[in-house]
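For consistency, the fold was encoded as tokens, which produced the following:
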Amino acid sequence: GTSSVITAILPSLKDDSEPYRRMTLEASDRILTELGTFDLDDKTVNRLLDGLLYSFQHQNLENKQASLVILNGFANILNNLGFRVKPHVMQIISAILYRLKNKDSDVREQAADLISKIVDVLKVCGETDVLIRLCTILYESLGEVYPDVLGSILDALKNVILAIDDIDSLNPSIAQIMSTLIPILRNRHEKVQEMTIPLIGDIAIRAKDYISHKEWMRIAYELLEMLKAYRTVSYTHLTLPTN
């Protein structure tokens, strides 16, 4: 059963060997995804999340594939636990925000990617205030100089905005966010473009009336300039907002 197996392997999440910790996390992810979490008691959930945080915070990001396993496993388990994550939300968010300010660009990128993956569970837990705070912090991080990290931050911002039902509660306002996105459109890095354009498209769908006509004209001009720069190259990922 889920409870017996998870209880047996939990100590290995804090093992000295990182590959062993990673294997344990991956096994936990598969077990909980296949069998569910309904028979885990609160004590086991507490120990599980404590072990997951330890594995997440004590990983070596030099191995991209290994760090992806930890990222996906951590996010999957949180989403499988759903509302039961609520008592631990602040501890998890604190760990993410600490890493979002890390001097290592890979650490910042992974932290932003994790935000993108756990937005749904934060919404299930009713953590609207946390989502609004994340929106503010991600907005303040849009000055990121590493394009790969900036792309992940933009993706996280998009998912957070989609999860917040009341557009008026955003801080900063949707108009301020859009004004900051326009200069980012000039960034020709592929990942940045892939994340910026869908974000603008989502804003066009949900909050077009919050943006002035003059601002939309500026956006249209930047998109046209971007297309001119790409006209000799085939970019299958490039889907412009039509709203």
In short: Residues 105-124 form the longest helix (20 residues). The chain has a mean pLDDT of 91. Residues 26 and 231 are 43 Å apart (CA to CA). The chain is about 70% helix and 0% strand.
